[in-house]
Amino acid sequence: MVEQAQLVIIAGAVRRFLEPAWLEWHRAWGEMPSVSSRWTSTRSSAFLQKVLQEDFGLAATWRSGTPRLLPDGPDDCPYGFQTTQGWESHAWVEAGGWIIDVTLDQYGAEPVVVTPATDMRYSAGTGSSALPEFSAGRSQALAALWPKWLASEERRGVVRAPVC
Prior knowledge:
By secondary structure, this protein is of the alpha+beta class. The protein is 40% helix and 18% strand. It contains four helices and seven strands, in the order H-H-E-E-E-E-E-E-E-H-H. The chain has a four-stranded antiparallel sheet, with helices on one face. Strands 3-2-7 form a three-stranded antiparallel sheet, with no helix packed on it. A hairpin with a 2-residue loop joins strand 2 and strand 3. The chain is globular, with a radius of gyration of 15 Å. 36% of the residues are buried.
């Protein structure tokens, strides 16, 4: 089983690497939220999944949930992340019996969360609800980030001991 402490170190390095990218994404989207991780969970989690798989050989699964069809609409399903205000659209990664989340601070939690996969605040839907153009944008963003990650200080700083 993967140790929680190892995942916290890896997730912290990934988050530090992603923070400048979030600012670029927000500028491109024409909006700058008060918390830089806001609206980035899908791309960030997909990137974290790739790091866990490619760099550490872990079987990692990208998960997401969308509780409503419209941003201001009523909750249709208990999917995503449950805040004190209700369910929010969110994405995260599961690996080795853990949920690894590098963007939960957008909902007032810690910036990096590694919690058991049984954490009832998380509920995955049946797949991505993203429109094709948003899925394509996610793929392009990940392709642009990967070579930067391979050359990054954050990657070199991650303890490279086997993760088992």
